[in-house]
């Protein structure tokens, strides 16, 4: 009987050791994955001209509408590029907006230049709504600022009401990492 207990104890010890090793390995993989995800969010938010927190809220909300974070980053990058193009050259895809819409609602290219990517896109949609453009014109102007930007209209209409609601939800449910958490993961 003593032999049997020794065998069971040895087997139990081996199982516990293997279980602990697996848990530690799994935890290390989870931390590495989270750190890589945080780096990607930081890189994409820089590309988009947004803070990591702004970007996380926007991508959380956009995902509800089937838009992935890479696409959101592309839309915001294009937004910044098109505004910069107009400021530098007075032309490009934003020329129609600044000639036809901006004077009606009293916004300027300089105002856009001082905004982050998400803020500029929100002002753009607000301006189009204030000007009372048709749905067809809204699509035209949204696609002029960035390919597939039309998909973000549900989040940005009514002064970004849905974006704010879902962004607050993202923060409340722990889906937005703070600057300190980004630093710790790095």
Topology overview:
Blueprint: H1 2-48, H2 52-63, H3 69-89, H4 95-105, H5 109-113, H6 117-131, H7 135-145, H8 153-172, H9 179-185
Helix pairs in contact: 1-2, 1-3, 2-8, 3-6, 4-6, 6-8
Name a few traits of the molecule.
186 residues, mainly alpha, 9 helices, 80% helix, 0% strand
The largest pleated sheet is described as: none
Radius of gyration, rounded? 24 Å
What is the helical fraction, as a range of percent? over 70%
- Average pLDDT over all residues: 84
Helix and strand element order: HHHHHHHHH
Class by SSE composition: mainly alpha
Protein model, in words:
- The chain has 186 residues and is an all-alpha fold.
- The chain is built from 9 helices and no strands.
- The radius of gyration is 24 Å and the shape is elongated.
Please outline what is shown here.
The chain is an all-alpha fold. The chain is built from nine helices and no strands.
């Amino acid at each position: 009987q003593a032999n049997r207990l020794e065998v069971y104890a040895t087997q139990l010890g081996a199982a516990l050791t293997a279980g602990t090793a697996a848990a530690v390995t799994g935890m290390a993989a989870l931390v590495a994955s989270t750190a890589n995800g945080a780096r990607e969010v930081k890189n994409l938010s820089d590309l988009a001209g947004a803070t990591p927190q702004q970007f996380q809220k926007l991508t959380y909300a956009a995902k509800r509408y089937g838009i992935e974070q890479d696409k959101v980053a592309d839309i915001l990058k294009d937004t910044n590029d098109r505004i910069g193009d107009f400021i530098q050259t007075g032309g490009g895809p934003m020329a129609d907006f600044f000639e036809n819409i901006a004077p009606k609602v009293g916004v300027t290219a300089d105002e856009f230049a001082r905004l982050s990517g998400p803020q500029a896109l929100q002002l753009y949609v607000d301006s189009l709504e204030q000007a009372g453009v048709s749905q067809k014109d809204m699509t035209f102007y949204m696609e002029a600022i960035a390919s597939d930007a039309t998909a973000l209209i549900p989040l940005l209409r009514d002064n970004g009401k849905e974006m704010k609601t879902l962004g607050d939800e993202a923060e409340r449910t722990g889906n937005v990492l703070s600057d300190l958490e980004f630093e710790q993961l790095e």
